[in-house]
């Protein structure tokens, strides 16, 4: 039983409509005769002639019935495949943003004693952290301006 599950193709190979979650085409490119959505599954019926000669039938989700082959795919699986696609597209962007944020948090904890607040209450804590962030940004700006002034060469008369 486990071997057959591992050999099945991913739901991502099926062409599924984004809005209605109806199967438009199978991985081989055949269009279904009839499609629909039941309680928690999207269902498609494919012709016997198409699926019986298909080389992907062993890896496909289709099951033979009297008049057609049917494919039942759980809607949660469809949603999961969509989310995985979005994650793969945004992976580089997400990781680079996280690294920048972690560095900023670490600098605030080390340089401005924000590892443990000595205040109670949300308003006081928010104000205190806001002032610490302003102080860190001011320090960074001052250091940047100092570096820029070192790069500029003074004009000499001569």
UniProtKB/TrEMBL annotation:
The Transposase DDE domain covers: 26-141
Q: Which InterPro entries does this chain map to?
A: Tnp_DDE_dom (IPR025668)
Identification of the protein by name: Transposase
Species in which this protein is naturally found: Tepidanaerobacter syntrophicus
